[in-house]
Amino acid sequence: MKKKELIVLQDLLGTNKKIAATIRGELGERGILAVNFMSSPGAGKTSLLERIAERLQATAKIAVIEGDIETERDAERIRAIGVPAWQITTGGACHLEAKMIGKVLPSVDAGIDFLFIENVGNLVCPASYELGEHLRCVLLSTPEGDDKPKKYPKAFTTSDCLVLTKVDLLPYLPFDIEKVKKEALGLNPRLKIFVTSAVTGLGVDDLIGYFRSARQELKDRHA
Amino acid sequence: MKKKELIVLQDLLGTNKKIAATIRGELGERGILAVNFMSSPGAGKTSLLERIAERLQATAKIAVIEGDIETERDAERIRAIGVPAWQITTGGACHLEAKMIGKVLPSVDAGIDFLFIENVGNLVCPASYELGEHLRCVLLSTPEGDDKPKKYPKAFTTSDCLVLTKVDLLPYLPFDIEKVKKEALGLNPRLKIFVTSAVTGLGVDDLIGYFRSARQELKDRHA
After folding, report:
1. Which is it for the CA torsion B179, B180, B183, B185, positive or negative?
2. How many domains does chain B have?
3. For testing the chain B interface, which of A5, A76, A170, A172 should be mutated: the one with the most B CBs within 10 Å?
4. How far is it, in rounded angstroms, from Cα B156 to Cα B164?
5. What CATH number is given to the structural domain containing B188?
6. Which of A62, A153, A174, A188 is the most exposed place for a label (fewest CB within 10 A)?
């Protein structure tokens, strides 16, 4: 990368980090836990969010921000289960940025408990942009293959949790869960790992429990 | 995007396009058909290339350039079936660029017939960077879901062919082939569409036939 390009990129990342820090602080003050979901296209972010939202909305107020290059499809899916959702269409950009979240936040109900942000489907670029989240989750679906963590390391090194999705397909695929866990933990030993299926519901309650604990810790920190 | 950022991006894309045009011309002169494979991580680019290379190398000389952020894993898989392969590791960058191909080309045997380039797994950014290819193929795997073309349009509008992969998994997935074909052709009516499985070999010969015809046309143009 040329010097000129590098300076522009560093400016962009520096500005993004500052905006993200402000958002994180403000949400924390209000007791709202923000979670950033990142993954390849089609790894099952929206399906997992549907399962989480269906169960969690019985006892907590939640909202979802959907990031996509084009279409309202994901926000429509979330709204269909009765959860408020805002669609950000980036019009070509390969990731969400904190300023995009900042623009949507004034519309989001101030009394929510959890804010889930589904990033653009991309296992590379979103990892470089904090959005003001308190937890970052990378999803990896079984059909993508068990060789991915080392090939796309930043999504794994910057995340708090790894969610293995679509494990209902394991009988039909060559995918070694233990190998992936080992490789991911080798990159990032503090990763919490969840094994899930949006079809059978496996692991969804464990993940909800993890988010609930994280929100309690956030509230304790800001108490 | 700010003006300063936009100018840097336009410079980058303009320079890339010029380098790509030079590469495309030089390969064409030598009768080498270059094919750029783009897709999400884990859509099956390497597995499809293995199947193509195994069959095609009986009657043609081929070489493969592998693009990844980290690791030599994909190049090792291709070398294991006796096909020369060069690994480009971008060290973080989310796509290949023409200048990276230009650096590798002097090492590639001048007498090859087909050069396959496997891009970094990313359904967004690679679409903006020509690599000097004569054909661009976007792969979409059945587990990714049939809603992807309109959500990630540029990969579909800039490609010559769409390869649906992993169709052996269709019995276990909600994926409507006809819906995807219709949506993709709505975005780009000139797309050739192939339905394939690297597990069963379905569609691989049709794809090889398509590449052979394209190479013949290329040679005729340069005769």
Report:
1. negative
2. 1
3. A172
4. 12
5. 3.40.50.300
6. A174
The nearest alpha carbon in chain A to B12 belongs to A5
- A15, A74, A124, A173: best to mutate for the B interface, most B CBs within 10 A: A124
Q: Give the 3-state secondary structure of residue B177.
A: helix
Contact residues, B window 133-192, toward A, CB-based 8 Å cutoff: 141, 143-145, 147-148, 150-154, 166, 168-169, 172-173
A69 vs B121: CB contact, 8 Å cut-off?
no
Does B73 touch chain A if contact means CB atoms closer than 8 Å? yes
> How many angstroms separate the first and last alpha carbons of chain B?
45
pLDDT tens series, chain A, 223 aa: 678 888 888 889 999 999 999 999 999 999 999 999 999 999 999 999 999 999 999 999 999 999 999 999 999 999 999 999 999 999 999 999 999 999 999 999 889 999 999 999 999 999 999 999 999 999 999 999 999 999 999 999 999 999 999 999 999 999 999 999 999 999 999 999 999 999 999 999 999 999 999 999 999 999 8
Let me know if residue A156 belongs to a domain: no
**Are the Cβ atoms of A121 and B42 closer than 8 angstroms?**
no
Angle among Cα A144, A146, A147 to the nearest 5 degrees reads 95
pTM of the model: 0.96
* Domain with B140 in it: 3-222
Tell me the chain A residues in contact with residue B8 when contact means C-beta distances shorter than 8 Å. 4-5, 8
Here the ipTM equals 0.95
Does any domain span residue A87?
Answer: yes
Is A185 domain-assigned? Answer: no
Q: pLDDT for A8-56, tens place per residue?
A: 888 899 999 999 999 999 999 999 999 999 999 999 999 999 999 999 9
For chain A, what is the total number of helices (H) and then of strands (E)? 8, 7
Longest dimension (CA), chain A: 52
| Binary contact (A152, B41; C-beta < 8 A) | yes
Please indicate, yes or no, if residue A132 is contained in any of the structural domains: yes
Q: CA–CA separation, B21 vs B12, rounded Å?
A: 14
